[in-house]
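We treat protein structure as text, and this decision shapes the records that our systems exchange. The remainder of this section carries one protein's record, kept here as part of the documentation:
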Amino acid sequence: MEGFFTFGSPMVELGIEGRKTEMLLDTGFNGQIMLPQTIINDLDLEQIGISDYLTASGDGTVARVYKGRLLFFDEERDVSIVSTEADFSLAGMELFQNCKIIIEKNRDIVEVQKSR
């Protein structure tokens, strides 16, 4: 999977419920996917719970958790999606636990490879 940089941040494009979404490849986010509540509403996802988590600034917050289908390396799989009121989407490390990630900003490389 080839990614790209936007304003210096590594990004990937993933298909959730058939909708292509650009996401920040966030090595500091331990979850799978975080989406703005507006996108979650548009996709009409099913809420499956709530979760406490720490933001990047260290603040504790509570968010709704939803179930969605993700196209990942040409395979559909169920993922947990955390909601946010922010206007950005994140792809986190739980999603990439069986992957090799290469990020080289000075060479303009963002690459995710499925581990064997």
Observations:
- The beta strands are 4-6, 9-16, 19-25, 33-36, 46-54, 60-72, 75-84, 90-91, 99-104, 109-114.
- The longest helix spans residues 37-43.
- The chain has a mean pLDDT of 94.
- The longest strand covers residues 60-72.
